[in-house]
Amino acid sequence: MRADGVPAANAFTCWVVLSEEGAVASGGVGQVKERSQGGRGLAVLDTMTQNLRYAWRSLRRRPGLVAGVSVTLALGLGANAAMFGVLDRLLLRPPPYLRDPATVNRVYFTRQLPPGDLRAAATNGLHVAMPYQRYRDLTRWTTAFAQTATFATNFDMAVGAGQGTRQVRVAPVSASFFSFFDAPPVIGRYFTTEEDVCPKGADVVVLGYDFWRSQYGSRRDVVGTRLRTELGDYTVIGVAPEDFVGVGQTDESYQHPTSGYGEPVAVFIPVTTFGAAAFGDSKTGPCTLPAYSRDWLQMIARRRPGVSLTDASSDLTAAFQRSYLAQRDEVSAQPFPEWERYFPPIAIARPHAIAGPVLAARGPLESSTSRVATWVAGVAVIVLLIGCANVTNLLLANARDRQSEIALRLALGVSRRRLVGQLLTECLLLAAIGGIAALAVARLSGAILTSMFLPGDANVLLFQSRTLLFGAAATILAGLMVGLVPALQAHHTDVIAALKGAGRGSVSGRSRIRAVLLVLQGALSVVLLVGAGLFVRSLEHVRDVHLGFDVDRTLRVSVSPWQGTTLDPATQRVLAQRMVEVAKSTPGVTNAARAIGGPMVGAGDAPLFVPGLGSVDHLGDFGVVAGSPEYFQTIGTRIVRGRGFTSEDDAAKAPRVAVVSDTMAQMLWPGQDAIGKRMQIGSDTAAYTTVVGIAENTIDNAISGKRPITYYVPIEQIWYDVGAVEVFVRTRGSARQYESTIQRVLQDLVPGTAYLALMRMREVLDPRVQPWEIGAVLFFAFGALALIVAAVGLYSVISYDVARRTWELGIRIALGAKTHHVLRAVATESALFAAIGVLLGGAIAFLAGPHLAPLLFAESPRDPVVFAAVVATLAMAVLAATIGPALRASHVDPGTALRTE
Q1: In sequence order, which ranges of 88-157 are alpha helices (DSSP H)?
Q2: Cβ–Cβ under 8 Å, residues 81 and 442
Q3: Within this chain, do residues 705 and 814 fall inside the same structural domain, yes or no?
Q4: Containing H/E element for 594?
Q5: Which of 30, 281, 671, 851 sits most deeply, having the most CB atoms within 10 A of its CB?
Q6: DSSP code of residue 250
Q7: Integer Cα distance of 363 and 783 in angstroms
């Protein structure tokens, strides 16, 4: 510019004064500038940087909006990130170190089971457990696999000496097991095929990393030392790497895979070595006959290149059927009454094998916990959708307030595409702030979810790369979801009308979209609240189940001789009786009794014959429990009719008597009094046993399903060598507070190297109740969160609408409208939103109910009580969200409203 103020000719500067219409028609100076910059090839990065700066300046002027949006998104994003971490471990991520996991399968078996078999009701004959001989059969009679291995991970073993003895998790595995993994030992080596052979493998073990670190202080000279266990002394030859967990565990019935990796394995031992020590004698081990008598192992196999899952399953099925025939031949040669009932011909049994997922939680025998986890993940997504709908409504309201600003920017030449980009950048920045806040939510919720679904997993799920990537992707997606509708509406802004103040004409369109979002929030909230109500009701039903014994005040104490030592029957009886006497004199103990078997710990079996019926084995599985006279009082099982055992019954030569469960009495003697009835135990030539009492039913391993058919006999009348010492102890209060005292007092009575193990019955019950507890807690928590978010969203929209309608409401009041008229005008709209949301959500919940039914306990997925409670809850939430804005509307000052407008 020259000194006289006239622009220089080469500056190419032009000042143009445009009318309002002219600015819009020509596109404005801003668009000319943008086109010239584009022509010079301005980098996209520069545009993005400018958008970020603009977004940051814009958001700094609206801290309330930033706080509301960030908190809402943080709750949804944090819960989803934490839930993804759990699902990633359960269903997506292969076991650590597993080589080429896509080719590795866990082997499942299925066959028709006889009516009355408890496994038939629980799994429809599907299971993972097999005997060692079946593993050998499948290995040599299949051609589809390049590698096979067998393993078991649900055994505990006592290690140490004296008061330092403790139980740890032991995993018997075949020597081929380690070749499935790229996991070289930290020190030493793994055992070889030559050390894992029939009839007995070598006395060697490999330590788990955590056990090596905690018990040996990570000493590298541990190789070559001897490890003392209840099964014998073993030489340590190596240490597995950190986080080596194998392929997962099964539950205590050896039928269902668990949800996670469970308790870390402390000791890996050759499968033949463990089998010889635990089940057979030192010469035969798992190779003894009958070779098919114990299902205790699982199998994994690696498919050869080009072999499909269908071909692998067909190959396994053919080998399984051949092995099943060998098992039938073996069983038929044994003195096993009615063996054909349990092992019918192939045409009836229809045995099949399946090459299934190596991740146990993916099925086909997924646990209830993993199914609940999948549902909860869906619930977390719904919560995020509700949050996104709420945020979108807030942004639409904000866009209405910014309508003049947006119109002015368009008039000054900002392209509509650039405007949409800037608004989306604002939303992405808001989502990013919410995503950062979500880390705190994920940290807290992740710890809670991990403790519920993966209690044995010590790994932190939150800051794993896959979880962080998921969180980042979810944040970006949420930002685009909440910003797309406001940005597109801004794109279609009528500039001239907005600048002239005639924007009211476009409000209806925005209101319709926000109404749809409100209805969506309400519907999804109904779905979650119905799910929460169903799980809460299920948990109530579970807790109302009459267990038939006192689960909180009962301890089971057992004594197991270590390998190489024995306790003869006379010594066992003396020791058990001495333990009962000492336990009774211990402070806090109210009673104690000897027993073999019991509720939730298993029962024996024997052929049973009833006069007039003959053998009753075809009616179901009858379990027998032996107990001393104090047994029923100790475990808290009531005698509903007749009597229990007395000291006169507890003698080998006393008349044989029995107490039967109520279920057994009704099954064998329907419509009759079972007291005085007779039966024969063991054979149809055995002495008659007279029923002297009827006990209430107790639960078995499963909370749900049929009650076990149980009968009880005096322990001195037991007809077989029990081979162990078991005592039940009843405490004055919770068994937990007396556990250590009882352990210390009774351990002093145990001779030699025998190991004393205590088990609280609550510990046995809790894992069986856990799926319903998890479902109830998480569905309720997410449902409450969704309800709060939806209520806040409704409150915000109604408040905004009241503010927008101030002029209209002022005129109404000026014209004589009463307070209740104004209240009704405001409340009617919110009530309509709620009604539509309830109807839509109720329909979705009604249709989805049957899919949720398998996870419920004694609860209809369409329970009218639950649906009615949800409607009432939502009505109260709507009332709470409406009453504040409605009262403000009824107190609008007409003069102030008209002057403001």
Answers
A1: 118-123, 132-141
A2: yes
A3: no
A4: strand 589-596
A5: 30
A6: B
A7: 28
Tokens of 446: 């992740």
CA distance 611 to 605: 19
CA atoms of 98 and 729, how far apart (whole Å): 45
Residue 220: closest CA among 191, 186, 246, 195: 186
Q: Which residue has the tokens 């149980």?
A: 710
- What single-letter amino acid sits at 107? V
H or E element, residue 79 = helix 63-87
Instruction: Assess contact for 785 and 381: CB atoms under 8 A.
Output: no
Helices (H), 805-863: 806-814, 819-852
Measured distance CA(258)–CA(367) in Å, rounded: 6
| Residue 397 within any structural domain of the chain | yes
Indicate if 126 and 81 belong to the same structural domain: no
Write the Ramachandran bin of 151: left for phi over 0, alpha for psi from -120 to 50, otherwise beta. Answer: beta
394-424 pLDDT, tens digit per residue, is: 788 777 667 667 777 767 767 777 777 778 8
Nearest to 118 by CA among 603, 571, 720, 643: 603
Q: Beta strand pairing status for 166-173 and 155-159?
A: antiparallel
Residue identified by tokens 């096993």 is 336
Do 641 and 709 belong together in one domain? Answer: yes
Instruction: Name the phi and psi angles at 73, rounded to 5.
Output: -70, -35
Distance, CA of 580 to CA of 571 (rounded, Å): 14
Assess if residue 325 is contained within a domain.
yes
User: ∠ CA(259), CA(262), CA(267), 5° rounding?
Assistant: 145
d(CA 549, CA 697): 9
* Domain final residue pick, 314, 337, 358: 358
Q: Are 488 and 591 part of one and the same domain?
A: no
CA distance to 185, 275, 331, 333, 379, per residue, from 344 (Å): 46, 28, 11, 15, 45
Which element (helix H / strand E) includes 659?
strand 657-661
Residue at token pair 């700094």: 60
Q: Which residues contact 623 (CB under 8 A, 6 or more apart)?
A: 597, 602, 603, 604, 605, 700, 708, 709, 710, 711
User: Is residue 62 one of the residues assigned to a domain?
Assistant: yes
pLDDT surpasses 50 at 366? yes
* Last-in-domain residue among 751, 784, 804: 751
pTM above 0.85, yes or no: no
Contacts of 61 (CB under 8 A, 6+ apart): none
Cα–Cα distance measured from residue 793 to residue 784, given in angstroms and rounded to the nearest whole number: 14
Could you list the residue range(s) of the whole structural domain that residue 521 is in?
A: 508-543+763-901
* Gap between the Cα atoms of 895 and 449, Å rounded: 56
- Interval 448-476 mean pLDDT: 73
Question: Exposed/middle/buried for 3, CB within 10 Å: 0-12, 13-18, 19+?
Answer: exposed
**Coil/strand/helix, residue 116:** coil
Rounded CA separation 526/845 (Å): 8
Task: Measure the CA–CA gap between 765 and 550, rounded to whole angstroms.
Answer: 11
Paired strand residues for 250: 257
CA 869 and chain centroid, separation: 26
**Element (H or E) spanning 128, and its range?**
none
Could you read off the pLDDT of 560-617 as tens digits, one per residue?
766 556 677 778 888 889 999 999 999 999 999 999 888 888 788 888 999 988 888 7
Residue 108 backbone zone (phi > 0: left; psi -120 to 50: alpha; other: beta): beta
Residues 586 and 665 in one domain: yes
Q: How does pLDDT run across 348-358, given as a tens digit for each residue?
A: 889 999 999 98
Q: Looking at the domain assignment, is residue 758 inside a domain?
A: no
Same domain, 591 and 739: yes
Based on the fold, state whether residues 233 and 184 are members of the same structural domain.
yes
Q: What amino acid is encoded at 208 in this protein?
A: G
Q: Distance between CA 549 and CA 638 in Å, rounded?
A: 8
Statement to judge: residues 708 and 776 lie in one domain:
no
Q: Are 837 and 525 in contact (CB under 8 A)?
A: yes
User: Count of domains in the chain?
Assistant: 4
Tokens coding 544: 């109302």
Distances (CA, A) of 225 to 190, 207, 219, 235, 741: 15, 11, 11, 6, 33
